[in-house]
Hints:
Shape: globular
Structural class: alpha/beta
Largest sheet: 6 strands, mixed
CATH class: Alpha Beta
Number of helices: 8
CATH architecture: 3-Layer(aba) Sandwich
Helix content: 25-40%
Amino acid sequence: MKGRVLIIAGSDSSGGAGVQADIKTVSALGGYAATAITAITVQNTMGLKDIHSVPVDIISGQIKAVLEDIGADAIKIGMIGTPAVAEAIFASLADYPDIPVVLDPVLVATSGDALASDGMTQTLKAVLPRADVITPNMPEATALTSLPITTPESQLAAGRALLSLGAKAALVKGGHGRDEKLLDVLVTRDETKRFTSERIKTRHTHGTGCTLASAIATGLAQEMDLLMATRRAIVYVQKAIREAPGYGKGNGPLNHSVEME
Length: 261
């Protein structure tokens, strides 16, 4: 077991997204997962029913407890929920500037239900300088940059805009695109890389964003460079979608237990 990943995110009662998906992903890729839970959600494949926010002092306490004892080689941040929680999280990380952070800007669930309060977009923009890589889908990238994103060129433009806001790298995902092939665009300060994948026609995509971000964080924790970590993460998610178990009546979960060569 190599690579300690601290996951800061919400809990998903269906097990397909959030902390549950993150732990499965890190474990499947050979890492060690620790957590700081930001919220407890009541949800299943049909949608989000309710959210119970964890008190900010408990969130900060979880982060402190993990980092002071077990430590972390990478940090994955998913559902934050409110600006107050964001402030608590990044204040807790202030003493650990060298641990790489993968920020998945969770604003809306796969079902379309909101997972963040008003004001979170501006808050996320303010904390971008702490993100080693941010992994927005097209709607999230549009919310953060105010750019309409419908083409590979606009994905690239959004990535560059996120870098101008302070992120060290941005992976603008293409799952919401309409092209036959799925294109993810990685923009760093030194290069641009395009990842082309098969667009799998399926309703079993619950938790893909959480899974991808956690897979990247695991790679960074295992001392992969960002390019290699991203490539492996995309392959893992693709395989997990293809082998989805078919559970649920709506947007079903992936198969996080797939084996990687």
